[in-house]
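Posted in: Structural Biology > Protein-Ligand Complexes

Title: Requesting predicted complex, flavin-adenine dinucleotide in pocket

I'd be grateful if someone could produce the 3D structure tokens for the following input. Sequence and ligand are given below.
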Amino acid sequence: MPLRLYRGDLLLIAVLLLPLAIAAPRLGGPPGEAAALLGWVGRVGGILGLAMLLVTAALSIRLPGFDRWFGGLDRLWWLHRLLGFGAFILIMLHVLALGLARVPAGLEVAVLTLFPPLSQLALWSGWLAWLAMVIFLAPTFQFFGRLDYQRWKRLHLLSAAALLLALGHALPLAGETWPWWLLGALGMAAMVWRKLLSPSLARHPYRVESVAPLARGVVEIALRPEGRGLRYRPGQFVYLTPLDESLTAGRGEEHPYTIASAPDDPLLRLGIKDLGDASHALQTVSVGSRAMLEGPYGDFFAVDYAQRDALWLGGGIGITPFVSAARGMAAEDEGRHAQLFYLANGPDRAYYLDELTRCAEDVERLTVTAHFYREQGPLSEAFLRHHCPDYVDREIYLCGPPGMISHLRDLLAAQGVPALRIHCEVFDFL
Ligand SMILES: Cc1cc2nc3c(=O)[nH]c(=O)nc-3n(C[C@H](O)[C@H](O)[C@H](O)COP(=O)(O)OP(=O)(O)OC[C@H]3O[C@@H](n4cnc5c(N)ncnc54)[C@H](O)[C@@H]3O)c2cc1C
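-- Reply #1 --
Done. Output follows.
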């Protein structure tokens, strides 16, 4: 993730530092003596660690539009993971430093500081919070291999217990409690919204209008809104929850899919590739069945990048954001030029190529070039330069399988393209 600062980041830093700023007069500066310094580090680590944990929970809110304050939902999830991991490290530091600070008074005193009699509920509440964190963080960081996505989501519910237990630890011990009430309320509100309220309040009803096969294992589903449709921009995505009774998997389960239609299309279209149980079942979803849509999310083609011509590199099902943008260009007279490279294994897997080529014939500021891996091998610098001589000066957008993305990132970095000018959409949040 390139280090770009978004407006939401400043808010995040302010909220994170609030409890420390409030406690600062009581904490004072770092003392000179070693044991006192360790005690000070332990307390600062605990305050920052708990603030990070509560803010991590608040960031899980998933409100359409809110993610754009942070550069899109994938970056928001990245921040969520980073802060969650940071919270865990700081909480470990808190425990270790407070224990070590008591060593000069004797080993027994140090052990008793960390493991007091059971009657000291606030301290044991802290340990239980730590245990809950270990249980739900281990699969997130894939210490024991990759976990089934739905099981991982269920396990993540333990984070609510960790939050409550951590507050049960901090509130009786803290000098000033209001920052913890505030951050705790934000974290819990985010979880209540996400798990209890958003399934009924944030989802919009649609009906499947058609299911068009594009290639083996790929369909385009067109959905008609039952009420007012979602408003979206090219490059954004939705969470689709199909309700079709006849589905063999994934009924009532939400999955993210990039919108492939133009924003002015009365139907919302999704190109869906069979990549697992739920997406396999969707290949034969019943026409006329109901589906709920939540979103839109994401900020792939952010408005503030639009000062330069664009280079689009889309591979496999990662072509969908570019299909939406190309379809949208027909309705917009003005805008910068875009050169799309459609990377596919072969002509049989370039399922949107015919339509994109027709778009480029109608729209002067769009050029489409196909590249077939089976015939031409990995995309080379010479191929790029031949078809788009000024590609290094363009704003660059990548979407496709991880192997393609890392090959292209290396290629572009070797040509000196700054990381901040390369925008990636990944179809994987884990
Ligand atoms: C931002 C984004 C946009 C996407 N756009 C498209 C698209 O336009 N077309 C398309 O075919 N696919 C798209 N995907 C991928 C699609 O979401 C997964 O293929 C689908 O969720 C797989 O579910 P499954 O049960 O079929 O397979 P599984 O075997 O359950 O999952 C395969 C992998 O998909 C990911 N995944 C599964 N469920 C979810 C979930 N609920 N949320 C996030 N990731 C999940 C996990 O990494 C998992 O390892 C997109 C993914 C993301 C994150």
